[in-house]
Amino acid sequence: xxxxxxxxxVGGEWAEWYMMTPEQRWAESMKLxxxxxxxxxxxxxxxxxxxxxxxxxxxxxxxxxxxxxxRVVRRG
Length: 76
Prior knowledge:
Blueprint: H1 6-10, H2 12-18, H3 22-30, H4 32-38, H5 56-66
């Protein structure tokens, strides 16, 4: 039988991930949330542009003020 090592198929980092138990994967994933939020990520849901209730102008105005480092530049 031909056995391949996981590292040869998916690479070392992914092989390490696949060898973890679901509980270990969950714990590692939870460590990423503080980083995501510190980098300006948000837990707000993405708007559904296909929804009949979607208002693009309202969404843009809301988002421009919630993201760090995003500024509206006006040229006069």
